Structures are given as structure tokens and as C-alpha cells.
């Protein structure tokens, strides 16, 4: 296992995963205050002050070592523009070796493959350098774009928890998708 792992930028063909920085406040606020973006998230649209606190907290999350450690890197396009954020949390160390992955995009960055490439960079890290066995995503199954991304990444639909949580005034389901290291190797082989 490659722990501890200290964050360093991850470069893809069209995107780069980088740490949050102070000048990301405006696009982060635009994303996290948008009711449509927040529709399937666990939180309501946030105020500027809340987003500033989130930026400070998440910018400081730079190391994966123990269960509960997480990263919230920014997805930047080839020109360095903020497109969204990824989420990657170490859930269990050896021998279970599991992490959770997630993503949020600005509306203008959707449909361009940025989230797929960014998630691929994190899955390469997870199953390569970090030596993890399993990565999963939990999402609202009404979020068609996230379901499609999970499927495009080769993640398996493992289940749907009916009325799993009371959220934003209603009972909501939770969809569970996952991929194992050996499955990612096959998916990467098909895409290469």
C-alpha cells in the first residue's frame, strides 16, 4: 500500500486534479449555491460564508493515511479553469482497502467527459499507487448523469436502498455502485 500518500496534482489528457486554492472561491460558490447542482447532494445551496469555510477545510485535506482521510481536488480543464470537484475518501485500510469516490460539476462543464477523465485519474491512483481493492460511489439514483458516469467507468450497480434517508423534506433512495481493482484493469484495457 502506498500510504501515507500526500497530494500531488494528477494530470490527464484534458483535465488536471489540483488542490483548492483561494481564487477558487467564486466558482466553488457558484457551484455549491446553485439549487440545481445541489438537487441530489446531501446539502442545501450554501452561502458564500459557508463555501469559504468549506474551501478552507477541504484545501487542507491533503493526505491519505487513515480511514476517514479524504481529498476534494478541483477538476481543471486544459486552460486551468475550474470545472468542478472530485471527492475521494479512504474508508478502510488493509486488508479491506476500500475508498469512496464522488464528483460535482459546474453546469457549463457537464457533458464534456471531464468527470469521467477525473474519476479515471483517481481510480488509477486508487488501484495503482495506493493498492486499494475496491472503490464505491453512493448517489441519488434519480441523478441520471451520475448513474451514467458510474456505468461508463465500469462500476457495477450493487444495490438500491429504498427510502434510505430523510433528505430535504422527503424520503430518498441511495444507489450503490462499485468497482474492484481487477474490474478497473479490464475497463482500462478496453479504453486503451
Automatic annotation (TrEMBL):
Pfam families: Acetyltransf_3. Its EC number is 2.3.-.-. It comes from the Bacteria. The lineage of its organism: Bacteria, Bacillati, Actinomycetota, Actinomycetes, Micrococcales. The keyword Transferase applies. Residues 15-186 form the N-acetyltransferase domain. Keywords: Acyltransferase, Transferase. One of its GO terms (molecular function) is acyltransferase activity. SUPFAM superfamilies: Acyl-CoA N-acyltransferases (Nat) (SSF55729). InterPro entries: Acyl_CoA_acyltransferase, GNAT_dom, N-acetyltransferase. PANTHER family: GNAT FAMILY, PUTATIVE (AFU_ORTHOLOGUE AFUA_3G00765)-RELATED-RELATED, N-ACETYLTRANSFERASE DOMAIN-CONTAINING PROTEIN. This is GNAT family N-acetyltransferase.
Amino acid at each position: 500500500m502506498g500510504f501515507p500518500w500526500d497530494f500531488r496534482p494528477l494530470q490527464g489528457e484534458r483535465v488536471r486534479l489540483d488542490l483548492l486554492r483561494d481564487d477558487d472561491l467564486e466558482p466553488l460558490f457558484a457551484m455549491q449555491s446553485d439549487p440545481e447542482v445541489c438537487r441530489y447532494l446531501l446539502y442545501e445551496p450554501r452561502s458564500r460564508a459557508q463555501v469559504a469555510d468549506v474551501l478552507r477545510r477541504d484545501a487542507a485535506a491533503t493526505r491519505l493515511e487513515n480511514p476517514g482521510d479524504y481529498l476534494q481536488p478541483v477538476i481543471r480543464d486544459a486552460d486551468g479553469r475550474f470545472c468542478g470537484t472530485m471527492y475521494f475518501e479512504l474508508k478502510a485500510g488493509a486488508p479491506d482497502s476500500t475508498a469512496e469516490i464522488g464528483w460535482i460539476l459546474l453546469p457549463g462543464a457537464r457533458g464534456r467527459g471531464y468527470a469521467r477523465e477525473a474519476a479515471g485519474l483517481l481510480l488509477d491512483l486508487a488501484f495503482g499507487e495506493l493498492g486499494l481493492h475496491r472503490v464505491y460511489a453512493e448517489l441519488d439514483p434519480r441523478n441520471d448523469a451520475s448513474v451514467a458516469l458510474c456505468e461508463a467507468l465500469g462500476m457495477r450497480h450493487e444495490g438500491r436502498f429504498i427510502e434510505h434517508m430523510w433528505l430535504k423534506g422527503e424520503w430518498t433512495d441511495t444507489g450503490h455502485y462499485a468497482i474492484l481493482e481487477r474490474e478497473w484493469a479490464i475497463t482500462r484495457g478496453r479504453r486503451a
